[in-house]
Design a protein that fits this description.
By secondary structure, the chain is of the alpha/beta class. Helix content is about 30%, strand content about 25%. The protein has a five-stranded parallel sheet with strand order 5-6-7-3-8, with helices on both faces. Helix 2 runs parallel beside helix 4 (about 130-140) and helix 3 packs across helix 4 (about 130-140). It starts with a strand and ends in a 5-residue tail after the last strand.
């Protein structure tokens, strides 16, 4: 599987964020998107995920499921955790599993991120790090080959960062690929894609 972009241009609010961007990621590979604040790291992930429209260029996936679009084969984990505070930990994960069409092994996914002790706890009571772990569990409950991660280790302590690095390594070993916008080390080998710009 190969994800590639050629001549990608992003315009937001009438301002060019970046242009002429080329990138590539293959199965089993992680790409760390770096650059200063406002350079367009998050915008690139959102373009790949189909959440923004390119001003120019192309983004293509080769070797994926022919009947599915690129966004249907990708997970976008934004810097905000998409959780319903009133729902329990398990209910939040079940919602995403049902919405995205995943397998029914929710407790196993929560155990993998260290939240199996909090199944019935409302998400409102979770710490920032626990909320991040719950968001990560969604990546496990609904298997998709492409992980688009925006500052994925934010709010995670050292133990959480180590655990997530292991999960990312497992994903890559199964032939998945990762594109992560980050200011911090991911905890695994990654090729760097630096984005410049003034936006």
């Amino acid at each position: 599987m190969r994800l590639s972009g050629r001549g990608v241009r992003c315009v937001r609010g009438g301002r060019e964020v970046f242009s002429g961007l080329d990138f590539e990621a293959r199965s089993g590979e992680a790409v760390a998107v770096t650059g200063r604040n406002g350079a367009g790291k998050t915008s690139l992930l959102r373009l790949i995920a189909g959440l923004l429209t390119m001003a120019d260029g192309s983004i293509e996936l080769e070797g994926g499921e022919a009947e599915l679009t690129l966004p249907e084969q990708a997970h976008y984990l934004g810097h905000r955790d998409a959780l319903k505070p009133a729902l329990s930990v398990m209910e939040n994960l079940c919602f995403w599993r049902d919405f995205l069409g995943g397998a029914a092994f929710d407790a196993e996914c929560l155990a993998a991120v260290g939240l199996d002790h909090a199944l019935r706890l409302p998400a409102a009571y979770l710490s920032a790090g626990q909320r991040r772990r719950l968001s990560i569990a969604r990546l496990l409950a609904v298997r998709r080959p492409i992980w688009l991660l925006d500052e994925p280790t934010s709010a995670l302590d050292a133990a959480g960062q180590s655990l997530f690095a292991t999960l990312m390594g497992d994903h890559l070993s199964r032939g998945g690929l990762i594109v992560a916008a980050t200011h911090a080390p991911l905890g695994l080998a990654a090729r760097e894609l630096r984005i410049g710009g003034t936006a």
